[in-house]
């Protein structure tokens, strides 16, 4: 990913803002977005229900995708997810 | 898929379903009858619950036309009934359904215009499997947008009971001229059994209500076995309205589907056949017996082929000969 030009990067990174939603809705919406993406694309998910940390991370791993990063910013969680298959 | 255009007159056809005599069970001392709930506009007993729950929410000011979205987790008839009835009354509907629910049911719901969310068991394993996933998702969607969503929650909604207490119960009393002595039904939320039984016992305290449950691990859509599934709140409130229970296994139920076609020319659902099998098995010396046939067999072509009840060819041929088939809105 790192050697790609920036404009190309933004074209393939979608953002799902799931702040204000309660579990399991963030993981449900993540699943729908990932199903619509092409292999290799990444998705940023923002969520602020603390349960999302476990739900989203576990779903990503169980379904064979890659959790590139998980950061906590101002009480919100930010996931970077790469579709692997 | 084209959305079906609904006729508002359908709302006036909720309830007042026919009661027909079952000659194959009746004798000199005992007369058996079936209440054919397939004659509701969207084809099942659940039209009553859907209609009463939406009307009740309207009266309580919980709904705004062309604004509120009605959301409900369900795997069958309630999804069909709510979608049909709420659309006619001017509300959007979203149904949360387990992805394993029957394709026939999902297609009907989509055709009636609801948005479908399909849940899978890997979403949130801690809440359980199947409909439990759907309940969790529906609850989360509704609770983060309380101004937009309303969830009737048939498992706890008193209007589901009232639809039967004020509708189905009095209908049966009138249709049997007050002579009914025994009442049989399957149980899902418990709205049907508690509503009808409570009304009938107020008229005749000697009336006996027999709850019919399928075996554990059953194939009977719409019914619950209380050894494997939790009792819904709505049922627990009036649990004592049931005097006795009888359990019917899958094999007996599917044999009864066949028997009802051969002896009565009826094409019934697995749950109606379960009730028939219970009426046949339960010893009754004398009286007038009524059983609820909650829907008919038209959604079960693939299940009956799979269970070797009827091949697809037999199913189609039987439908042409079947008696008492109702006009169902989405089949036009
Ligand atoms: C298919 C089906 N759905 C629902 C019901 C009754 O459901 P509830 O207990 O939710 O009123 C029955 C009961 O006979 C049924 O056969």
Walk me through what this model shows:
The complex is a heterodimer of chains A (85) and B (332). Chain A is α+β, with helices and mostly antiparallel strands. Chain A has a single domain (6-82), classed as TusA-like domain (Translation Initiation Factor IF3), CATH 3.30.110.40. Helix content of chain A is 35%, strand content 32%. Chain A is built from three helices and four strands. Chain A has helices at 6-12, 25-36, 52-62; strands spanning 13-18, 42-47, 66-73, 76-82. In chain A, strands 1-2-4-3 form a four-stranded mixed β-sheet. In chain A, helix 2 (25-36) runs parallel beside helix 3 (52-62). The two termini of chain A are 16 Å apart. The model of chain A is unreliable at 1-10 (pLDDT under 50). Chain B has a six-stranded mixed β-sheet. Chain B is built from eleven helices and ten strands. The chains are: A alpha+beta (85), B alpha/beta (332). The A-B interface holds A 20-25, 27-28, 31, 55, 59, 62-63 and B 117, 119-120, 122-124, 127, 133, 136-137, 140-141, 143-144. Residues 45, 77, 185-193, 221-223, 269, 271, 292, 294-295 of chain B line the site of pyridoxal-5'-phosphate.
Q: What does the average pLDDT of chain B come to?
A: 93
Low-confidence stretches of chain B: none
Silhouette of chain B: globular
Kindly state the percentage of residues in helix of chain A: 25-40%
Highest-level CATH class of chain A: Alpha Beta
Distance between the termini of chain B: 15 Å
Instruction: Characterize the main sheet of chain A.
Output: 4 strands, mixed
Question: Strand share of the residues of chain B?
Answer: 15-25%
For the largest sheet of chain B, list the strands in their spatial order: 1-2-10-7-8-9
């Amino acid at each position: 990913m790192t050697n790609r030009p920036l404009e190309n990067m933004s074209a393939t990174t979608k953002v799902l803002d799931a702040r204000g939603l309660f579990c399991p809705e963030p993981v449900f919406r993540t699943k729908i977005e990932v199903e619509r993406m092409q292999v290799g694309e990444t998705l940023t998910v923002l969520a602020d229900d603390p349960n999302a940390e476990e739900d989203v991370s576990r779903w990503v791993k169980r379904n064979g995708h890659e959790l590139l990063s998980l950061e906590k910013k101002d009480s919100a969680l930010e996931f970077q997810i790469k579709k692997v298959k | 898929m084209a959305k079906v255009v609904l006729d508002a007159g359908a709302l006036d056809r909720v309830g007042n379903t026919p009661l027909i005599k079952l000659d194959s069970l009746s004798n000199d001392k005992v007369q058996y009858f079936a209440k054919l709930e397939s004659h509701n506009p969207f084809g099942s007993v659940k039209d009553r619950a859907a209609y009463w729950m939406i009307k009740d929410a309207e009266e309580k000011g919980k709904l705004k036309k062309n604004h509120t979205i009605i959301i409900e987790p369900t795997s069958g008839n309630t999804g069909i009934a709510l979608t049909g009835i709420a659309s006619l009354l001017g509300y959007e509907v979203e149904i949360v359904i387990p992805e394993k629910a029957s394709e026939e049911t999902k297609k009907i719901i989509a055709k009636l215009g609801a948005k479908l969310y399909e849940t899978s068991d890997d979403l949130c394993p801690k809440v359980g499997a199947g409909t439990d996933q759907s309940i969790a998702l529906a609850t989360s969607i509704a609770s983060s947008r309380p101004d937009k969503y309303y969830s009737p929650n048939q498992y706890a909604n008193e209007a589901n009971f009232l639809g039967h207490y004020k509708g189905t119960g009095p209908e049966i009393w009138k249709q049997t001229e007050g002579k009914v002595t025994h009442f049989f039904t399957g149980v899902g939320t418990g709205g049907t059994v508690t509503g009808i039984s409570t009304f009938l016992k107020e008229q005749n305290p000697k009336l006996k209500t027999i709850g019919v449950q399928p075996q554990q691990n059953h194939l009977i859509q719409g019914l619950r076995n209380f050894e494997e599934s939790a009792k819904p709140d709505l049922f627990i409130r009036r649990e004592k309205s049931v005097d006795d229970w009888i359990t019917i296994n899958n094999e007996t139920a599917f044999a009864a589907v066949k028997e009802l076609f051969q002896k009565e020319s009826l094409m019934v659902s697995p749950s109606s056949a379960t009730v028939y099998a219970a009426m046949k098995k339960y010893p009754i010396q004398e009286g007038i017996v009524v059983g609820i046939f909650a829907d008919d067999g038209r959604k079960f072509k693939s299940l009956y082929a799979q269970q070797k009840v009827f091949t697809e060819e037999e199913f189609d041929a039987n439908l042409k000969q079947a008696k008492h088939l109702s006009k169902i809105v989405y089949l036009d």
